[in-house]
Design goal:
Order of helices and strands: HHHH
Largest sheet: none
Distance between the termini: 33 Å
Number of helices: 4
Number of strands: 0
Helix content: over 70%
Strand content: under 5%
């Protein structure tokens, strides 16, 4: 995996079974996910749990990601059901 892989490249690698690629996506978006959840629910600890659940849901639906869209838009669209 290249050091600066795009989100779309990481998704493709993750779909091919690369846990490293999936972890790279999580690392890239974990802080924004937790921060968004914390702003919505006003509880940092719960926000961390909800962000983790959102990433689990994202992994289950990763094949539905459209590479023509930004990964962040796709991820936050369905993860904000808090």
């Amino acid at each position: 995996m290249r050091a600066m892989s795009t989100d779309a490249e990481l998704v493709q690698q993750a779909l091919s079974g690369s846990q490293e690629a999936y972890h790279a996506l999580v690392s890239r978006y974990a802080t924004p996910a937790v921060n968004l959840a914390a702003r919505i629910i006003q509880d940092r600890t719960l926000a961390e749990d909800l962000a983790q659940e959102a990433f689990a849901r994202a992994f289950e639906r990763l094949s539905s990601y459209d590479q023509q869209r930004r990964f962040s838009s796709w991820f936050f669209q369905f993860s904000t059901t808090w």
